[in-house]
Amino acid sequence: MSVFAKQFDEAIEEPIKINSNEQAELIAEVTPSKYKNKIKYYWYNDDDILDSGATYTISTTYMTSSFLSKNFIPNRLVIKDEEGNTLETTFSVNVNNPPQILAETIPADGDTLYGNSHTPFLFSWQSFDRDGSKGLENVLEIDGTQYQVGELQQVIQSGFGEGRHTFRILVADSLGDKDSTDKQEFFVIDALEAE
After folding, report:
1. What's the CATH number where 40 sits?
2. In Å, how far are 2, 111, 137 from 186, measured between CA atoms?
3. This prediction's pTM
4. Is residue 115 left, alpha or beta, with left meaning phi > 0 and alpha meaning psi from -120 to 50?
5. Which of 96, 129, 150 is the last residue of a domain?
6. Do 109 and 81 share a structural domain?
């Protein structure tokens, strides 16, 4: 007997990590599978029974607070056959709040920047881990090329030719959950030519 989660149409085996932004389903799996409809399933949080059935749905409501998460997400499954034999397994579910990037960036979408290929331009944004942990990995993507910048949230970059350019920010936490901004554009006008 084993327990796995299904979220975003993906099966997640132990360690079970689910994203707080999307409902998840815990699924009991028994072998041989021919017995799966001949047994009863009971989902527990410690000694408190939460539900019965081969699946348990974890609503995003249960993931919104540590109290609900602690008390309404199962950590034990007990199965019983027709003769009264029982088998149990324990497991843990890690609820991860994915990182977030605030919508405001420098440059802003549509900004015009004045300078030439030697002019340093500031790229700035704010990303944070909603779980409060450290270790976010930021990526600055400029004109389709990705630059790993680690925990930095400000980068000064030069080398832009005159014209339209695009950028976006991507961030991932230590558990692999991600966020990104939409692709934004900015324009560089050669300040020396404009004079």
Report:
1. 2.60.40
2. 51, 5, 24
3. 0.71
4. left
5. 96
6. no
